[in-house]
Amino acid sequence: MTTRIGVLGFGLRSSLAAYAHQPDAGSRVVAVADPDPARRRAAGEQLGDGVALLPDLDTLLEQDLDAVLVLTPDHRHEEHALRTLERGVPTFVEKPLAITTDGADRILEQARRTGTRLYVGHNMRHMPVVRALRDAVLVGRVGEVKAVWCRHFVSTGGDYYFKDWHADRTRTTGLLLQKGAHDLDVIHWLAGGYTTRAQAMGTLAVYGGIADRRDNADRQMPDWYSVDTWPPTSQRELAPVLDVEDLSMANLALDNGVLASYQQCHFTPDYWRSYTVIGTEGRLENFGDGPDATVALWDRRSDTYRAEPDAVLPLRSGAGGHGGADPLLVAEFLRFARDGGPTDTSPVAARQAVAAGVAATTSLRSGGAVVDVPALDPGLTAYFAAGQVAPTGA
């Protein structure tokens, strides 16, 4: 039986639709909805004849669908997910789940109330470098984890986040949430716990000083992206509304005693994430986060700097976006939409990444005060821990 898929939004994450559209493997995108005629045309060109090209969610929900991908801008995730879940269609929501903690909680509650399967697109859980770090932690290569650090160097920041809706905090909350949700989720996954308190500082250090602005609603990021734009101060045609930070640093206390930190800079010359995991018996660190990345382990004491680690851990390889993570992500969602069962991603973890990002951003904008993360309803935690199956008699 073919899984019939609808796609809502055909923008920067439209590549996920291509991974879902595998007629020979039993899945087919049958409808794409986007208010932009140019994006609907692009969907038709990429996915071929037989795909209904629709203007909005109302018409999409009139189709006979087995699953839907919500790939709209962040501030629309909550609205759109609530409607697809209400209709009873298994739903993939691109990360972040929502731009507020309350919004994420409403989505989880809607999934529980309706019994509709919910999946969140945290693709980094399928990235080879993250899997190697996680596997090493699980088998005890560093003992008991006590600290996780992440430095995120974002050379693409000026192009990816400061020329369109990403620069408007009403649509993202901020980049500690929008961009950081990936890394916060990975930090939680590696640490085995969730953030309970956050403290952060940040500023609009570079891009706020660029006066050249343009409303880029008629374009998409590939239209202006260029690695030749350097230094960052040479960027032009930035978004009219630009009120998110391009430099931020967060300290996190997790519920299992692990301490974590996350640094994010959007005007570096290189683009990659550096994770460090420190335990009672060793230290892990990745170098690069793409197909050619390495994960190094130090587990012998020394009294000097040692460039050579005690072990280099093997990485799985795969074809497709994000080191092969994107096709694995979509395949897992489609299997879950059809059959249920365990997944490597987690709606609760997605909520906790949002909650940590919101708390850190609140701290950042209130002078660095420590901000508590609101606890999640234990009933929701239990429901998703049980695989989105209501307890007997509930």
From TrEMBL:
Domain Gfo/Idh/MocA-like oxidoreductase N-terminal as annotated: residue spans: 4-122
Superkingdom of this protein's organism: Bacteria
Domain GFO/IDH/MocA-like oxidoreductase residues, every copy: 130-285
SUPFAM superfamilies: Glyceraldehyde-3-phosphate dehydrogenase-like, C-terminal domain, NAD(P)-binding Rossmann-fold domains
Protein known as: Dehydrogenase
Taxonomic source organism: Microlunatus capsulatus
